[in-house]
Amino acid sequence: RNVAAKIAAGKYLIFLDGDDKLASTYVEKMIDVAQYNKDVRMVYTIARLFDSRSYLVPRARPVYKKLLIYNHYFQVTCLLEKERFIKIGGFNEKMIYGIEDWEMFLRYCQPGMKVARVNEDLFYYRKKEHSRTIDVNESIRKTLAMRLEMLHNNFDSYTEFPQVLREYSLDIERKRSLKT
User: Does the pTM exceed 0.85?
Assistant: First the structure.
């Protein structure tokens, strides 16, 4: 993804995993929102899960402090400004087990940054019974390695909100306790 982003010619980036799908109007609608709202730095949409289960994932409006704790606002498929993505260093290539999209969003988004949502299900996310994300979440070693990398790369953001750092630590502890 980082290599593709660097050679991309456009102003915006949209990443799409090979097993996911977009509605035929996805790109047009996302760009329309970004161009109409010049202060918006990211556009996302409602997702529809398909395959092993099918349901809508409406995604709440993002709150930066909650994004520090939970990865439940965006999928990797959203519209990003290429210039900003390159400036923050793109995806962290050390995050080989996953959640690299979440970690990138922590660096890409900032408190108060304007994010817009298209209120239609235009992104179709394949929900498998077994996936890299599920495998990582079931491996406490991999989960902790990725969470520690995320904390290390975004330490200033976490220390800006001490109560969030405590809640983040408790969330990791809960996950560890569930596995033991």
Answer: no
Residues 6+ apart with CB under 8 A from 84: 41, 108
State the greatest distance between any 2 C-alpha atoms of the chain, in Å, as a whole number.
50
Q: Please give the C-alpha separations between residue 153 and each of 8, 22, 106, 109, 150, in angstroms, as whole numbers.
A: 25, 31, 9, 14, 5
Contact 51, 127 (CB under 8 A): yes
User: pLDDT, tens digit, for every residue of 133-148?
Assistant: 555 556 777 777 888 8
How big is the CA angle at 109 (ends 54 and 158), to the nearest 5 degrees?
Answer: 105
Residue 94 one-letter amino acid? K
Helix (H, G, I), strand (E, B) or coil at 128: coil
Q: Let me know the angle formed at the C-alpha of 138 by 137 and 143, rounded to the nearest 5 degrees.
A: 45
Q: What is the mean pLDDT of the chain?
A: 84
For residue 164, what are its two tokens?
């969030």
